[in-house]
Amino acid sequence: MPENKGLDMEAFLQHPEVRKVTKSITPILQERLKYIPPVCEVFKEHFTRIENNLSYEFQIHPAAKQLLPLIIDNVVQQIVPADSPDEAFKKEYVKERNIGIVFSGGPAPGGHNVIAGLFDAMKTASPSSRLYGFILGPDGILEDDYMEITQRMVDHHRNYGSFSMIKTGRTKIDSKAKMALALENCKKLNLDALVIVGGDDSNTNAAFLAQEFHKDGIQVIGVPKTIDGDIQVKDKNGNVLCAVSFGFHSAARAFASDISNLSNDGNSDVKYWHICKVMGRVASHLGLEVALQVHPNIFLIGEEMADYIDSARIEKAKKEGTVDYTAYGMTLRHVSRMICDGIVRRAAVGKNYGIIVIPEGVLEFINEIQVFIIKLNTIIAEYNQTHDLDFHSAFPTLEDKLDYLRRLVRLSREDKTFSTWNTRDDDLFNDLPAFFQEGLLTERDSHGNFQFSQVETEKVLMGLVQDYLKILKNRGDYKVGIKPDWYRKTLAKAGLNPDAFGPVLFKNYGSGAPCLLVKSSIVSNKTLKQELVRGGQIGNTEDIPAAIQKVYQTSVPKFKTQNHFYGYDGRGSDPTWFDCTYTYNLGHTVFSLIANKATGQMAAIKNLEKDFSQWEPIGIPIAPLMHLEERKGKLELVLERSIVDTNSPAYNVVKALQNEWLSATTGPDNYRNPGPIRFEGKNINVRPLTLTLNNLGRSKLTDS
Q: What topology does CATH give the domain 248-471+561-570+648-703?
């Protein structure tokens, strides 16, 4: 009979224990919401001021000078104590203000603490000041959709992940009409300042808004946000001003925690290769940080592939009196064979399982794919500029799109000046799997970028890997190593002499090797029997002994994979102590910049790679950081994104440990468990491992 027969469910739901265990707000969340991160020493002062630091120089692009004349001469500003401020300064500092804030782009852990830090600093200076949050990103500015942020709202979101308080969106304020509408709506609210929390495109938007709003006295401050970690600011002499954007550490730790669980699982059932694609379209910072956090057996860094040079092919071409341009940059085939090498080496010691970490945008760094993306971006952009109907509406199916490309091929034959898409391009493109063709032709995002997260790029690589593994298997080069003790026990149990069969079966029998490898010539039951007959262990008419068959089948690798994508879950994770503290201090920095009349600046914390006591809040001029970049088929002035520096200490540490982490030995694997995300308590004062290693490397260079 059902256990709950006769149970008064309505009364049961009101039971204190039932209510306690079914509450949405858990005890750990309550602790998070109550936690107040520490602030930099300067923010303990009643008043702060900004001090221009002229020691930092930037290589300014002429287009930035032309388009952003009112903010192009901004310099780095340090937040310092306002010692003995006069009455006029105090009055200006504590005056009542209306400040607007907007989240732009994808969510990132820590965003709510930017609001909390700004709110707390603002209310401390002037309790009557108001903070307005624009709803659903820049659309909220354009549609005059906002809410006043209250103490209760702030307290309900402190140290809490994602951007749920005011939501976010990807709209760009990128036309004169949108600029005018944004200004009109900000003036309606009587805003003194607008704060834009976002990535490279959002901070680009902040610079143009600062230029546009300048004459009306509305300040605009940007805040660096992106889990990809591709906002890293240095001056032209390599001095680090912003080591990483907020959200990066939390996302990396969230991904690392999940991948660490997979390594435990793989180490238990020993039958799957887990393919872990980690978000990061343009840069591999997340992949590098995750690798340091979990020690995967195989990992790829896109920037390494872009820098790759095949010296052997270059020399071969020289001897032939030609130039092999494809030798610069890694090919898809080469990448797949690098992966195969690691898989085969682990299998040889009995480990036919493992963890592979690849960045989401890894294929963008591969020369042949990059050429396709550039060409297709140009084709799509040109079509959209010259037709009333956009490309994806005009050609809704893959076959429609391929037919249009064939027309371009015919055009290239008739008109030799047309070289955007030719016969060679079409032939190479048709060699790609249909799902990847469709992916490369998919609709671009709002910035004109190819959306790697929407395409199963790992399938392209792993398809090539599986094809090559079949070749290696048929050649007898891909085998699972057999432990000698297990082999001897298996044969002894069947009444067979291990030493008689050993030299016939294995190419390294008696060598003392930790694993026995079946001879390369044995690739089927037929070739197995031939070797046994040739070795005099069975006659032509005899069957293969069951124990020998078992040993052979154990040596035959079964390559099984599980694919995982780590992206959106990390964007919504709760922030680490690092990001909680970083963003709370960014909020305080924003207020200090606003209170001191700054505009066109990005709030930042210098020395993030060092101990918290050395963190320095600063304002970085956005305009001098901008350069021209191709977007939607045309050049636009944007904030430059940072990719992984293949000369950095962190990258070189990972490369140096690659073989150790592959663990192609019979000993235990070298997986690392990063532990859960923490926001307070023992061992929370940790920062991204890439920052730690790069700082240590710089310190060693300085010491020497």
A: Rossmann fold (3.40.50)
